[in-house]
Amino acid sequence: MDYNRLIDHTLLAPDATEAQIKKLCEEAKQYDFASVCVNPCYVAFCQRELEGSRVNVCTVIGFPLGATSTESKVFEAKQALEDGADEIDMVINVGALKDKRYRYVENEIHRLKKVCGDKVLKVIIEACLLSDEEKVKACELSKAAGADFVKTSTGFSKGGATVHDVELMRKTVGPTMGVKASGGVRSKEEMVAMVKAGATRIGTSHGVELMK
Length: 212
Fold this sequence. Notes:
By secondary structure, the protein is an alpha/beta fold. The protein contains 9 helices and 8 strands. It has helices at residues 18-31, 43-49, 70-82, 94-98, 102-116, 132-144, 163-173, 188-197, 207-211, and strands at residues 7-11, 35-38, 56-61, 87-91, 120-124, 149-151, 178-182, 201-204. It has an 8-stranded parallel β-barrel, surrounded by 7 helices.
């Protein structure tokens, strides 16, 4: 398996500099990763750096809390796409999910997918904050709203991807939707375990170490 093509090479640190983002892009081109995943302010820069490669530019919306308004997320996504983003990773409103405001959660995802069109939309459910029942519901709502992927974590909360969560998410969304394991995947063994559990994308800041 070409594990490199599963990796979203990630740098979302608040103190990331342009030089570090440039290095991220160079590494992504060298290893032919699926994408670089960066904060929205670096989308246009990455698009220029990656021109001529098949590495996509992925960015995050409503990140990392998911607690901004739907309108804010829609605006942020539109801007990111105008700047050249190929993939959007949005954070759900976790509080709304816990309040069982399912129509709100589904509508928000649907509106983001409408903005994305044929671009990839991944929905970060922040599994470490959810019960298994809530994880299942978040995945069902994401699928119903037309998202392309569900994603375990931001990597900025109290936990990252687990094999259990990936298995549960894969079981819920079925065989055709993407599942992204993100947060804490630092070794080849962990990556292989996530893929066996059903992950079709790996979000990690350790992509180069994983390839070595």
